[in-house]
User: Fold these one by one.
Assistant:
Number 1:
Amino acid sequence: MNVKKIPLSKQVIYTDPELIAGLAQSDSQIIGEIYKLYQPMLTKWMVSRGGNETDAYDVFQEGLLVLYEKSTDTAFCLTCKLSTYLFAICKRIWFKKSQAQSGVSSLDLEQEGDQDGEMDFAAYDADLNVHLEKEAHLNKLEQSLDQLGSPCSELLKAFYIEDKSMLEIAQQFSYTNAENAKTQKYKCLNRLKKLFFSTKMALNV
């Protein structure tokens, strides 16, 4: 009896540039590969230092978002291993969260990390701060939209988030035509700008 041998599928090994390029394209296979390669490593490190798996997962997601934002920047050039960059960003995020929750100095936490022979995480502050500023900006914008109320908040979401045409918006909100809907959108946008900057100033006081 002849037994047909089924060839074993070869595991695909991606290079760091391939992972970065795939992430920039939101390739689900590449994103899954990044999780498989690096998320367990971060979880093990955090759990060994008093963290838990849920926190580690959240931190990794936020770190991956920072990496995604950098990957879409054509000027971004990775000067170290991808694992080193992502791990350092995630640790920096966890240090900041731990400091906010426990009041422990971020410097003390960094020194603990340095005992493992790791690099100076301060070098990654610029990338992380850009991400945090964007996040704060979006949070303020969301607060302003909530304050804006109906129908303006729904109208702006329909145009900017749901990508609806002015004709579709006119039909949805019962305006006589697309031009009237466009005029209303302009008025709503001006109101949103005023609310956004007043919210921004209030939060900075």
Note: Residues 1-9, 104-121, 200-205 have pLDDT under 50 and may be disordered.
Number 2:
Amino acid sequence: MRLVARGVGKRFGPLAVLDDISLEVGPGEIVAVVGPSGCGKSTLLRILGGLERADAGVVETVGAPPSASLNPITYVFQDFALLPWRSVLDNVCFALEHRVGDRARRREMATQALAALGLSEFHDAFPKQLSGGMKQRVGLARALAVKPAVLLMDEPLSALDAQTRELFMADLVRLLAREPFAGVYVTHNLDEAALLARRIVVLSRRPGRVRRVFEVDTPVGARSADDPAIVVLRQAIWEELRADAAAADREILDV
């Protein structure tokens, strides 16, 4: 299943936030969306996920989701969004409660999702007992438990330290190879975009418009931060962003 946006626009009252945004993402690839603060990246993600209505343009899926998919379009949130009174296992089961009637089957599926992220030993732990990286892994396990066709990620690594971020990106690369979902990845971090994405969509300052799309041909699993091609790519993205980022930094309103 592919996710396609054509000519998407959004206003909040008199404030134009997005204008004529088009992108497409298919199975086994990630499209990263980068841009200055306030350019509407998170608003775009909400529109793609059906949480916000566009004022112009079309968002549609093309093709059927995999037969095993229980929730074709799924989110990974920036702030983990775990329920503090539930154990790790029960947090993952929560995503399945209205989709899988059999409790034993829910627990089996949640156990498999946690195992895929190296969390088998933490079923009975509670969120307050986990590090930031482990909390985000639980959030990702919960998203993957429903077998999404499209995974929408809103700055999922922004709350993590540098070392944990590196480990989490490695997890994401490995999972993408094994479970070929289509991913849209909103981030301020250009290294994450350059290392994870097949295409990188650069938005202008508000109203967000597509300034440029970078294609990255190197397989995701073969990239490294010190690869000269990745260093050049990151610099090219920054040069595309620099002026708008400086202007946005002087603005007060952040959407």
Note: Residues 83-147 form one domain.
Number 3:
Amino acid sequence: MTSASTAPQDRRTLLYLARVAEAAERYEDMANFMRALLSVEKELTLEERNLLCVAYKNVTTNLRNGWKRILAIERTAKLHPRQQALVHRERTQIESEITHACDEMIHAVDKTLLPAAHSSETQVFYLKLRADYKRYLAEIAPTSLQRHELSSAALEAYAGAHKIAVPSLPATHSTRLGLSLNFSVFFYDIRNSPERACHVAKDAFDAALEDLDSLSEDNYRESVMILQLLKDNMTLWAEEIETREAS
């Protein structure tokens, strides 16, 4: 990542700088400010946690989208050897940047955030983060062995988060629903199993429908949005399963 000015600052100043960077859509700077804040304060408030996630999510999403477009060019375009070399070099550079961003987030979770997480909700949230960024690394892994190792690490973190979430968080809680959404996407994208993805998504969706009375006003909008995403994914994946079985 490019380096914003992150000379020692107090918590309030770093938080303000992160908000300004977000408003300017300078997400790499935003991530740098939030990482600097972690060196000042190990336990984040809800707003600080969200700012950290927004920063790294935007950085990695932009990089991952670029990587997918480059990969499509490599696989579909008719390139002569020099063009192939140039495209390959660009993809390798993007992979390096994705790896750097993911490693930063995983390091923050493992060394700072998760050890300071005292509530079940924060433990679930940070384990999910660890799993998500391991999943992003698995997505770009250059060898099948590395993909397997990263996939297994992601699965372990998702499963660990799920084990904590089910007995401690309501089925309608946005953190639990978000975990189930990403866990199901993991099975579809990384494990190539739409059946397992559908199973995870359906379990979460059905449990939430049975527990709608527990849906708090604070979580309502986010929870409903995640439920819709779960439903949309289930529809797409079920159609894919039916098409595969028919053929």
Note: The chain has nine helices and no strands.
